[in-house]
Amino acid sequence: MKPVRLTEYTRFSGCGAKLGPGLLDKALCGLSQKDYPNLLADYSTSEDCGIVKINDTQALIQTIDFFPPIVDDPFLFGRIAAANALSDIYAMGGTPIAAVSVVCFPKDTLDISYLRAITEGGLDALNEADTPLVGGHSIDDPEPKFGYSVTGLIDIDTILFNNRIHDQDLLYLTKPIGTGLINTALRGGIVSERALEASTTSMSTLNRKASMILNTLPITACTDVTGFGLLGHACEMVIGSGCTIQFEASSIPLLPDVKEYLSMGLIPEGTYRNKEYRRSYIKEYASVDPDMIDLLFDPQTSGGLLFSIPKSSCSELERLMRVAGVPAVRIGEVIAGEEVITLV
Ligand code: CO
Ligand code: CO
Q1: CA 222–ligand 1 middle distance (angstroms)
Q2: Ligand 1 midpoint to CA 168 (Å)
Q3: What is the mean pLDDT of the chain?
Q4: 118: exposed, middle or buried (C-beta count within 10 Å: 0-12, 13-18, 19+)?
Q5: Do residues 275 and 294 lie in contact, with contact meaning Cβ atoms separated by under 8 Å?
């Protein structure tokens, strides 16, 4: 078989293929589950993982993430899928201990060597994360999809919930924004080499080092930026917090050429779904280019950690991130008040 472009097999790619949040609400709201005394977080909250207490000090955390190819190179696709699946564990401050793969593969139209390479890429990231692959499940499907369910352990006292942001905290982000736009440009055949390179490198990078640093500091809240975009995930941080998040738009790090792709209208469908769902939480953005709102709702695949930290610990945080080579950037602050997001 001749070489193929993996992204041609998909309608949407990466986390942009998620069912929209509004639609998901319709399927999940009001479901009743019996009470489990050890259940600390389940599907009804917007946390990155489900959490079940296993003894007085520890809990099991679990997550699953799989999606259609976001890049054409099968090894890199596997690596990105693993980095993305592990990320939810890191976003809560946990340590991954085992992974199970989820595979959908078109056996009649794609050579099995592609699945081999995807699996190798995934294992490369799992090895880096010291996380054994313990099994998996595969289905013959015309559209390839790949990812993992990851199980981890976490100390109950140090769980990083989404919405415990606190007045006067500062907000940081550890990866630049724009993977959705770059992917749309890739599918349109007009992506620049530098944009693709930067995006692929960012998506393949584990959030492990960043998470290990956060575990040594008094972080108040953390999540990872994925399919709902920076503003969508920031909404999950403000809801129930009693606080406003104020982003400084010009300091939000962007991948190369994304503003150009934005002005060309290469906007992923997921952006509109994300914006529609959370528009009412975005207040006071008059001083910001309206296109920026679209960019900040761009669905990210294997995005960075978004977290809040008291001002007093910022210089230590910045020092540790610099030493570790993690490009953590300060992008805003938290102010007690209405549960909304403002952009200045
Ligand atoms: Co997440
Ligand atoms: Co997830």
Answers
A1: 9
A2: 24
A3: 94
A4: buried
A5: yes
